[in-house]
Structures are given as structure tokens and as C-alpha cells.
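Residues and backbone
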Amino acid sequence: MQAPRLVASDVDGTLLDDDGRVTSRTGLVIGRLVAAGTGFVLVTGRPPRWIPPIASQVGVVRYAVCANGAVLYDIDEDRVVWSRTLPAEALAELATAARELLPGSTLAVERVGEGAFDAAAAQFAAEPDYEHAWPDADNSSEARAELLARPAVKLLIRHPRMTSDAMIAALEPSVQGVVDLTFSHPGGLVEASPAGVTKATGLAEVAARLEVAAADVVAFGDMPNDLEMLRWVGHGVAMGNAHPALKAVADEVTASNVDEGLALVLERWF
């Protein structure tokens, strides 16, 4: 394809190396593409409050599609532009399915406020015995009934003694049409979004704002929560470290995140 008009990148395992850094080579090529008039957007499972440290490393990114497509965050203005939430009824239905099909699993929710650091939003809350998949995770503790009482942009189901693939296989037949299930961590963590909300739908809204057609978008990813995005764009690139399902649908497989696979592709044009 010709030089893209918009580049979309997942964050963990894609844009960042394994030390959580944007390498100088990657940062330089992103700077060149933006200087050439091409847009660059982050599309991630991360919540808005985890975006500013990443954006500061890149320096030229304004928008981040967060929570697997459920939130659009304006980094420059520290503003949640829009969000798509799971109503309490859907949260309760999914919690019931998890209790029956994944005994021993625990729950957490992601919520958003008006900005990334809106403390009034009680943004991440988890059951007291929830075991975090990432170190130093931030959260408040809530009983299950309290967790499920308010809308959330994402429900997380944790079962460290299962794989995420196995969890989705057990849950999906019971909740199709109620939520979309995916994962960005293979070790027993499933993420549920409102039905029909994916990274692809979030990116499509950004592309429409910028008046860019899907055919003119290149996207990079590494995990199953990137599947719909790579299918939607004109050229989908899976990282060398990507989940096999992603490599199967990608137009191209590049080098791994630690080998600067994103930069390797973008340097063809910029």
C-alpha cells in the first residue's frame, strides 16, 4: 500500500519494549510520520490514567482509544471525549455466568470520569480477593454487589489457574450478544466490553473524525484484543511476539516488540 494517512498502535507488547519504553528508533519514525501529516493514535486495553506516561514518551500523539474501544481519551485536554459502558444488568448477567462456568474466579471493573485522574470516578475497583495480573496495580476494594451496581467500561474476570483462551471458550457461548469478550494477558484474565465495542469500532470513530478511510490506515497489535482492529484496517500488522490468532489474520507479521518491529514497517514510508 501507499503511505498510510493514519497509523494505529497497540501499546503493551507492540509500541513498548519489554521494559515499558518507546525506543529512540520508534520515537523518531513516529515523529517523522506526524511531521509528514499522518495521524498517530494509541489503541489499547489500558485505561486513560495509564496513558499520559506513554504519550509523554512519544510526544506527538493526541488521542488514545482506551479500554478496548470503550473510551476515547483526548490526551492534550485530559478529557474523556466519549465512553461506551456496560449497564448494571449486563454486569450482573456476566457475573452470574462467571460464577457458574468459572468457579473460583474473581471480578474487577474499570470506570471513567471526565478526565484521566478523576478520583470521584472510583476508576478501578476489585473484589477483596482479586489477584492482579500486573504488579503495582491501583485499585479500591469493593464487594461484588457494589462492583456490579454502577455502569463500567470494562469488566475483568480473573482466574490465575486457567488460561485466558480457556476462560473465553467456557464463557462465550453463554454471553454472546450481551458482551464482547477478549484478552490482552494470556494468564487467566478476560476483559468484557459492551456488545459490539472493540478496538476496531473505537479506531473507526477516530478515523471518521480525521476523515480517513479504513483502507488508508495501518494498525499494529500483538494480542486477541487487536483482532478486530487488524481486520478493519487497510493493512494489519502482527508483531513477531503476537498470539497465533493475530498472526493468522494479519496482512503482515513484523519483528517482535523488542526488535522494534513497528519501526521496521513504518520506515518504509517515513
